Amino acid sequence: MIGSGNLASHLAPALENAGHFVNEVYSRNPNSAKNLCSMLYNAACVSSLNFTQSKSAIFIIAVNDDAIEEVSAQISLPPNGILLHTSGTKSISILSCFEHFGSLYPLQTFTKRKKVSWEEIPILTEGSDEETSKHILALGKSISTKAFQASEEKRKLVHLSAVFSANFANHLLYMAKSMLDENDIDFTILQPLLSETLKKAFEIDPIKAQTGPAVRKDISTIRDHLKILDNKEDFKKIYKDITENIIKVHSQS
Amino acid sequence: MIGSGNLASHLAPALENAGHFVNEVYSRNPNSAKNLCSMLYNAACVSSLNFTQSKSAIFIIAVNDDAIEEVSAQISLPPNGILLHTSGTKSISILSCFEHFGSLYPLQTFTKRKKVSWEEIPILTEGSDEETSKHILALGKSISTKAFQASEEKRKLVHLSAVFSANFANHLLYMAKSMLDENDIDFTILQPLLSETLKKAFEIDPIKAQTGPAVRKDISTIRDHLKILDNKEDFKKIYKDITENIIKVHSQS
Q1: How many other CB atoms sit within 10 Å of the CB of residue B170?
Q2: B-contacting residues in A 4-43 (Cβ below 8 Å)
Q3: d(CA B149, CA A231)
Q4: Can you list the positions of beta strands (E) in A70-219?
Q5: Which stretches make up the DUF2520 domain (chains A, B) (predicted)?
Q6: For residue range A10-60, what is the model confidence (pLDDT) as tens digits?
Q7: Quick check: B169 and A197 CB within 8 A?
Q8: Cα–chain-centroid distance for residue B4?
Q9: What are the structural domains, with CATH classification, of chain A?
Q10: How far is CA A193 from the centre of its chain?
C-alpha cells in the first residue's frame, strides 16, 4: 500500500478483511504509516519505494492524483508485480513504464475513522492486459459486490458525474448553510427535506422529482430570491444559471 | 382544507392523526377532493368557498403559490375564522382582507401516497396578531416536534436555502444521470456516494466535507472535465461557475 491517507486507511483493512495480506505500507508521513500498520495484521512500515524484494503481487498507489506520477517514478517492482492507481480521472498509461499496471477506482468519499460498507461501493477496474485486468477485477470483487471493468472513458464519465452530484451538491449545501448561519437558523432544519429529496431522486428519477420555483416557472418567486441575493453576486450567478437550465430542460420534456 | 394536492393529501390526515377534525375539503378537481375525503373521518367535499356556516376554526389554503391570491379572493370565513396559507415565499399580507390570517410552512417535499414522518418536519408559522400566532403555532406543534414561529424574512430565507440545497442539488443529479444514461451506466452507481456525502455534510459541515478537483485546485482534472463537456454548453457553464466558487470560497478559508 503506497499512501496512508483517507482511502488507504479504509482500503488496506478492507483488503485484509477479504483475506489478503498487506505486507508493506509506504507513506511520506511516517506517523500516518505507523497508524495504518497498527490496524493491519503484519504489515511493515517501509521508507523506500524499492519493492524488488517484496513478496507482494499487487502494489496500490493511494495518493492524491497530482502525486501519482512523481511517486510512481520512484517505485521499483518485483518481477510480475502489478502496479495500480486509484484515481477516477488519471489514465492508466501514466504507469506504462511498468510491465503490468492498471487502476482500481472506488466511487466513494472516505473520512478517517468513519466506517463505510465496502460491499456496497462501486469499484471500477482497468488493466494493461487481459491477465492483469482479471487480477484487478478479482481484487475489486473480493471487497465489493459492485466491482466491474470499465474503460478509461467510462471511468472518467463516472468521476465527472460524481463531481456534479456529490462535490457540487455539497457546495450547494455550503451555500444554503451560509445563508442560514447569517440568520441564526440551524442548518439541520434542512436534513429531512434533503434525505427525502435524495430518496425521491432514486425512487422516481430526478427529472420527475424536480420541484421548486424554476420548474413551475414561478417568475415572481425567482425575482424575490434574486433580490434576497442582491449582495451575493456569486450565489446569484449560480442561482441564475441553474434556474435557467431547469426551465430549459423542463420546457423540453 | 382548501386544495387536495400533494401537500393537502399529507397534511389533512396528519391533522386528524393529531386529534383535529377536517370538516371540509374544497378542490377545483372534484375527484381529487373525493379521494382525500375518503382518507378522512367525516370530511365533506364542498364545491363552494363560502365557509360562513362552517364550524371549523382554521382554514388552510394548500394550493400552488400562484393560485393563493385568486383562491383567497373567493373565500368567506365564519366570525373569528383563521385563514392560513402554506407557502414558503408568499407574505401573509396577501390574506390581509381577512380578520385573522397567517401561514404554516412545512419544509418538506411531498409525493402522493409516499409516507413522510411529520414529527420530524420543520414547520414555520406566522400569524397576523398574537392570538392568531399562538393558534397557528399550536396547530403546527400538534403534528410536528419541530414547529416554531418565524418571521416572513426568515421563512423566505429558509425557502431560498431549500431551493439551493434540494431543488438545485436535484437538478445536479439530473445532470449526472443524463451523462451516465448516455453511456449506458446505471444511475444507482452514485447512490452510496451521495448518501455518504449527505451524511458527512451534517456530521462535519459541508465546507469541511468538500472534496473533489475544485477544492484541490486540480486544474488538469478540471480541464479534462471541461473537455468532456465540450458539446454541452449549459453543463459547462454550471460546471465553471460552481468550480470557480468552490476555489474562491476555499481559498479564503
Answers
A1: 26
A2: none
A3: 26
A4: 82-85, 100-106, 123-127, 147-149
A5: 121-245
A6: 999 999 999 999 999 999 999 999 999 999 999 999 999 999 999 999 999
A7: yes
A8: 16
A9: 6-150 (3.40.50.720), 155-252 (1.10.1040.20)
A10: 25
